[in-house]
Amino acid sequence: MSAITSQQQSWHTRQLKKSLRAVQLRKEAAAVALVAPLALFILLVFVMPVASMISRSIQSPEVVDALPKTTSALRHWDRKSTVPDEAYRALMLDVEGNGGNNEAGSAAGRLNGQKDGFRSLFYKTTSALPFGDNDAALSAQEVKKRLIDIDSRWADAIYWRAIANESSRYTSQYLLATIDFRETPDGRITPVENGASAYRAVFMRTFVISGLVTLAALLLGFPLAYWISILPARKANLVMILVLLPFWTSILVRISAWIVILQGAGLVNKALMALHVISTPLPLLFNRTGVLISMTHILLPFMILPLYSVMKSIPSSYTKAAISLGSHPFGAFCKVYVPQTLPGVGAGALLVFITALGYYITPALLGGAGDQMVSYYIAYFTNMALNWGMACALGAVLLLVTLILFSVYRRVVGKELKVA
């Protein structure tokens, strides 16, 4: 009887474990089903576009697509010895095959970036081909002679090195260009010539403008958030509605309003002249001043909201206790209250700075030529120059900076939480 009872208990135990596992699996399946739509949405609209942008920033398929036989013939060339004769024949077949289509035009532009004058050389050769009806039967030496007769530049190895540098579908040229470097036809990485590019200056300008906007938003937002946090609930809600008004207004409307306010005959200049503060209108528009004023106004709520949420949770008894122990009210505020607001300061500053890095329309409408940020050039390469590789490279650098800033913020906040 005891053996039977033991077997029954073992059977019931196994059944209970199976039931618990089944219940756990159903719960996990339900959780996955609830999370799956959001995960799929993030994958489609964020992860895949970012991955595509990063991959496009290192891709350069134009020359390989237009000159597949030529790039294949040059792929193992050491770029120091004589150009292989077979490369000349491959070039003839490629040029005759594409017939000057869009791929050939893209390849010519890409190669012209490697060596000035390549575009004219390419189009001159395209217009001179084919040689005849039996070009495929010509020997490599004969094709070489005829191509050099068309243009003597084909005898110069530097033009072939330019093609050899583009013999891969992947390139570092776009990423190098974002820091004002380039790869020469002989494979060396050198700084670009003075005046040829200024992306380092553009990035520096972007960081400076974003930093100034963040600082201005902090100086304006901190006292305003503190004032809101000590107001009664009803008044605080009313003021918060006023703070959030920019969120409910189109950005173009806000920028248009600032154009009206800041122009020479605008409200600001008229008021200052009426008060005899100035005698002539101040230049507040189409320069750095207008950009900073407008961006600060637009991004100020992103600073106030984190500050307010942190300040609202700080007990006023801490400051009162410091004052009761003999501290000056200002000293108690700086040494007791302000340190407790640092998480909000960090979150607000990070949010404003990262958002400001990607601003495009405000500097484009209110700034001058020297006030355009990285986003302006991303839009230019996307919509005007149709250079997606360069646009993606600039976007990838901005993404990297954003991730670095977020990582630094997490480390700083993590240390503060551990200390607390």
From TrEMBL:
Annotated compartments: Cell membrane
Entries under Pfam families matching the protein: BPD_transp_1
Membrane topology, record value: Multi-pass membrane protein
A GO term from the CC aspect: plasma membrane
Domain of life: Bacteria
CDD domains: TM_PBP2
Chief location category: membrane
Biological process, per Gene Ontology: transmembrane transport
Family recorded in the similarity comment: Belongs to the binding-protein-dependent transport system permease family. CysTW subfamily.
Name of the protein this chain belongs to: Binding-protein-dependent transport systems inner membrane component
Organism encoding this protein: Paraburkholderia phymatum (strain DSM 17167 / CIP 108236 / LMG 21445 / STM815)
